[in-house]
Amino acid sequence: MLSSASKRICLSIRSRTLLPRTVTTYPAIFQQALFQSTLTNNAKQLADIDHGKIQIQRSENLKSLIPAKDLVFGRTFTDHMLEIEWNADQGWSDPIIKPYGKISLEPSAMVFHYSFECFEGLKAYKDKDGNIRLFRPDMNMKRFKKSAARLTLPDFNGEELLECLKKLIRLDERWIPAERGYSLYIRPSLIGTQESLGVGVTTRALLFIICSPVGPYYKTGFDAVRLLATTDKVRAWPGGTGDAKIGGNYAPCVLTQIEAAKRGYHQNLWLFGTDDEITEVGTMNCFVLLKNEQNEIELVTPPLNGTILAGVTRDSILSLARSWNEFKVSERKITMPEVVKAQEEGRLLEMFGAGTACIVSPIKEIHYHGRDLSIPLDPKNPSSNTGPVTKRFADVIVGIQYGEIPHKWSVIIP
Ligand SMILES: *Cc1c(COP(=O)(O)O)cnc(C)c1O
């Protein structure tokens, strides 16, 4: 927290330097750095991202495509990448699309020491008419800005960045597999690059986007997962950074993932608090469909209270469910004891994880306090590997993503 004295200083810095109102506004902690740079720069306008200024350096050695069936998630990269540099004196430089390749940074760059890194994940799809489509990319841009602000990394115009992203996808279009279920995974990332071991605001940053062709998450129908409920570690906590897509949140989760795998589970279920609130499944949002104590069918997902990552898939599922208006839809706290009780009383209907990679991931079992709790899939079809409502969400979302169901969420890249 800033003391009231330092708040006054910040305010007076802001008014004295007359920061232009039209440029991107920066978090309060930035004002000091901006003050210093504007002293030498005399209120020079900081440039924002401008897709009209994009420079394209085409690769002269195009790689050979990998057969779609051999793709492993996140291992193959396309021919090009996008880079945009930022510094506190000039703002954003001209975007450059160039051959995919190494980034050269000094070992003192802040990203290597203090995890000044945030990222996004979205996909481009090729529909049956050959159009390239994105799914709700505006949501990813908004979330990217929010994650950057949490780390005092520079803000930017999300619409302009999206236009740059579209140019990159167009250029690397041949990498989007045409087969339904396949897509191009797009990874924007923003890092602090200032050479400094001091913990503070970075005065230099690099935004880059790389792309990777990916196969369907489920090669042969759905695969329901078995989860280990984690009771000795937490992913996120009130006032923490669980609601930001920042690199620092993910490395610490791998140990938990390995522990679950060693005990024969596919994933771990993150709980929080003394009453074992359900938060997320691995790196997915979590949904529970149950008949509640009032005998109503209710779809429940934890609320965006700061410990939950606001998934685009989560939002899409909530929005579809509300539009169907067939059952109650709640963003509310739900605990493991509530799920156990519903299961014991035959009221638990379905559970699933949700995220861009898989869309939905049906859950068939949760190990919690020494026992394996079995989660229903489809009682009418014992051989099914997914619940019917879970499957319906996946079918509708995939239909929208591939342009088979017309919807404003699907954006064609012209
Ligand atoms: C990215 C992510 C999700 C899913 O978000 P989508 O936008 O649906 O892909 C959920 N939880 C965590 C922790 C994530 O990092």
Automatic annotation (TrEMBL):
Entry's EC annotation: 2.6.1.42
Segment forming the signal sequence: none
Reaction(s) this enzyme catalyzes, per UniProt: L-leucine + 2-oxoglutarate = 4-methyl-2-oxopentanoate + L-glutamate; L-isoleucine + 2-oxoglutarate = (S)-3-methyl-2-oxopentanoate + L-glutamate; L-valine + 2-oxoglutarate = 3-methyl-2-oxobutanoate + L-glutamate
Membrane-spanning segments: none
Matches recorded under CDD domains: BCAT_beta_family
Matches recorded under InterPro entries: Aminotrans_IV, Aminotrans_IV_CS, Aminotransferase-like, B_amino_transII, BCAT-like_C, BCAT-like_N, BCAT_family
Cofactors required: pyridoxal 5'-phosphate
Positions where N6-(pyridoxal phosphate)lysine occurs in the chain: K245
Gene Ontology CC, one term: mitochondrion
GO terms (BP aspect): L-leucine biosynthetic process; L-valine biosynthetic process
UniProt cross-references to PROSITE patterns, sorted A to Z: AA_TRANSFER_CLASS_4
Example GO molecular function: branched-chain-amino-acid transaminase activity
UniProt enzyme class: transferase
Family as reported in the entry's similarity comment: Belongs to the class-IV pyridoxal-phosphate-dependent aminotransferase family.
Name of the molecule in the record: Branched-chain-amino-acid aminotransferase
Record organism: Rhizophagus clarus
